[in-house]
Amino acid sequence: MIEISGLRKTYRSKAGDVVAVDGVDLTVGEGEVFGVLGRSGAGKSTLLRCVNMLERPDAGTVSVDGVELTGLRRKRLRLARHTIGMIHQHFALLSSRTVAGNVAFALEVTGVPRAERRTRVAELLDLVGLTERAEAYPAQLSGGQKQRVGIARALAARPKVLLSDEATSALDPETTESILRLLLDLNRRLGLTILLITHEMTVVKRICTSAAVMRDGRFVESGRVADLLRQPGSELARDLFPFEAPESVPGATVVDVTVSGEDADTPIIAELARRFDTDVRILGGTVETLAATRAGRWRLALPGGPEENRDALEYLRTLGARVGVAS
Amino acid sequence: MTWSEVLDLLNVGFQETAWMVAVSTLLTAVGGLLVGVLLVLTDKAGMLPAPPVNAVLGLIVNIGRSLPFIILLVAVIPFTRLLVGTTIGTDAAIVPLTIGAIPFFARIVESALREVPPDVVAAATAMGATRRQIVGKVLLREAMPALVAGLTITVIALVGYSAMAGVVGGGGLGDLAIRYGYQRFETEVMIATVVALVVFVQLVQMLGDLLVRRLSHR
Ligand SMILES: Nc1ncnc2c1ncn2[C@@H]1O[C@H](COP(=O)(O)OP(=O)(O)OP(=O)(O)O)[C@@H](O)[C@H]1O
Ligand SMILES: [Mg+2]
Predict the structure, then answer these.
(1) Which of B63, B114, B178, B212 has the fewest C-beta atoms under 10 angstroms from its C-beta?
(2) CA atoms within 13 A on the CB side of B80
(3) In CATH, which of 3.40.50.10380, 3.10.180.10, 3.30.70.260, 1.10.260.40 is domain A238-325?
(4) pLDDT digits (tens, 9 = 90+) for A209-242
(5) Domain annotation covers residue B14
């Protein structure tokens, strides 16, 4: 649904050039929820703004729903933009228009006739649960309500793709949760493809099927969340399951075990203790239900050196776990 | 001079001021909006970047802004004759008033439009809005309270400028105050005129504030 290849964007200024996006390749399949994580200044917003050509890339191609956007003339680009919804961290609503007026604006822009607008606005407000607040002005709404207006507006033209730049960063955890639930619901009911940017792990945990970690304009890691979790040394896996635990234990082998998908339901620690008659200890760990999968990560201490535990570790791998020896 | 004579003078003066200010406000609103929008559009980061046009327009506006009104009044006399057919009277005064106020209001328009959050403009662009829609439905609409507040300031400045319209026989309250009060020492007339001016300005400000409150939903 979204195909990006070799994307580059440099900001030029007197103070010097900043390479914001430095060769990014990205494919987001239909109905997928793709999350891009990264520190401040990594180039996430620039990447997103290149998808609907709010920023013109210097190199590379972007196509959405089979339409190559980089080469389009102004008019064609405007039409293509109707199929790409976007939501913003600070909502970006028109303060001079009511909730209904803001949604209607999106319809006016797409050229929906006046007579149809009313029913469509009502539909959209119903979809995001804001029917009661239709005549309120944005200044009278809570952050969560404003973002719902933003979402309704983004969906006005029945886009196939939704871009989201830190849509929940200005919201408290509970409101974030309700917005994420709404996005997930839209993704499932409308088959909406979502490309989102965030610095919050919860967002990835809750709704992303795929994710990428961005640093200095590049993707350092990217793929399906379930696969990334199994990938040795994955930053994402580590950040998704942070825990405090000792790195080494005298006289024992410390191993990090990550399981995901159906394997997450295997009682691996019990199996291990029973089969190898080992006094396995749990040093730390978490289990999470992610959007696409269930997963867990533990740090275990097995008595004895790595050699003595070779069979036990091999057995863990056959159970589908990703095993890394910490010390 | 009797009070009824003073009242007659005031009545005529008030009508002249009201006419001059009303017509030049209307013309200034149109001209200032046009120039202000052009200044924003032609900016190098604007929607129709044209740095040379922007620079020339900015220079003209700055010249207009820096010229003392009394000089402008005299300098545009030939242009006034061309436009109105005469160089004296209330209608003739409207020409320099408008020319003097357009650059003033244009800068107010420019800064009001720049106050519209870039985020909101980007959102409209991302929706596929045309430039015309962005100017009309986003920039001008969102800036409306600031534009009305700015126009109120402009109207009051025009009331002040119009006091000098007497130089070209424009009449009005300000002219009355200068001729009777300052030149003929008719203190009562001067005080009455000044009071009338204060009331006028006060009314304009109140009306402006009311409108701004009505329009603002921030
Ligand atoms: N309009 C601009 N002009 C010049 N440099 C810019 C511009 N926008 C962004 N940059 C620079 O490009 C780099 C990437 O910025 P970007 O906004 O894409 O980062 P980000 O990952 O979204 O960060 P954050 O999490 O803080 O939003 C930064 O170094 C930033 O300073
Ligand atoms: Mg950003």
Answers:
(1) B63
(2) 23
(3) 3.30.70.260
(4) 999 999 999 999 998 887 787 776 778 877 777 7
(5) no
Instruction: With CA atoms as reference, report the closest residue to B127 among A33, A163, A70.
Output: A163
A185 touching chain B per CB within 8 A: no
Considering its fold, how many domains does chain B have in total?
Answer: 1
Range of the domain at B105: 22-171
**Is residue B185 one of the residues assigned to a domain?**
no
Measured CA to CA, the distance from residue A167 to residue B147 in angstroms comes to 31
Identify the CATH number of the domain defined by range A2-228. 3.40.50.300
Contact B127 A138 (CB under 8 A): no
Q: Model pTM?
A: 0.86
* Type and span of the H or E element at B14: helix B3-42
Residue pair A156/A103 in contact (Cβ under 8 Å)? The answer is yes
Q: How far apart are CA B38 and CA B107, in angstroms?
A: 11
> Is B130 inside a domain boundary?
yes
Q: Alpha carbon of B42 to those of B53, B58, B90, B113: distances in Å?
A: 7, 10, 36, 13
- Decide: A258 in ligand 1 pocket, CB within 6 A: no
Q: How confident is the model at residue B184 (pLDDT cuts 50, 70, 90)?
A: confident
Q: Where in chain A is the domain with CATH 3.40.50.300?
A: 2-228
Question: In the structure encoding, which two tokens stand for residue A44, read together?
Answer: 């996430």
Under-50 pLDDT residues of chain A: none
Check pocket membership of A109 for ligand 1, CB cut-off 6 A: no
For B167, which DSSP code?
G
Amino acid at A46: T
Does B138 reside within a domain?
yes
Mutual orientation of helices B3-42 and B51-66 as an angle, nearest 10°? 160
Instruction: Name, in order, each residue with C-beta under 8 angstroms of A158's C-beta and a sequence gap of 6 or more.
Output: none
**C-beta separation of B173 from B197 below 8 A:** yes
ipTM: 0.86
pLDDT digits (tens, 9 = 90+) for B202-214: 999 999 999 999 9
Residue of A nearest to B144 (CA): A96
CATH of residue B93's domain is 1.10.3720.10
Q: Which residues contact A29 (CB under 8 A, 6 or more apart)?
A: A1, A193
Q: List A residues 69-128 in contact with B (Cβ-Cβ < 8 A).
A: 77-82, 84, 86, 88, 90, 92-97, 105-106, 108-110
pLDDT in tens, A72-119: 998 999 999 999 999 999 999 999 999 999 999 999 999 899 989 999
